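Researcher: Good morning. I'm working through a list of sequences from a screen, and I'd like to move beyond sequence-only analysis. For each chain I'm collecting a predicted structure so we can compare shapes side by side. This is the next one on the list. No need for commentary yet; just the structure.
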Amino acid sequence: MKKTFGDLEVYKEIEIEKKDIQQICMKKPVFPAGYISFVTNEREVITVNIDHKNVYEPARHLILKFSPKKIRIG
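Model: Good morning. Structure tokens for this chain:
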């Protein structure tokens, strides 16, 4: 069953406006788990852990479309 963004709204844990993001860092999950870190203009770091490879690739593609100049993949 496909879900819309409205359906996924209940799972939202963070919200950062694009203009407030300075950098996005990603690490592919191997051992230990991977992550996505958002560095804000105020130097706050917000990290989301990713422990499944099947989540990492779709997230990477979305972030590359969202803000390709701000992403750093490690």
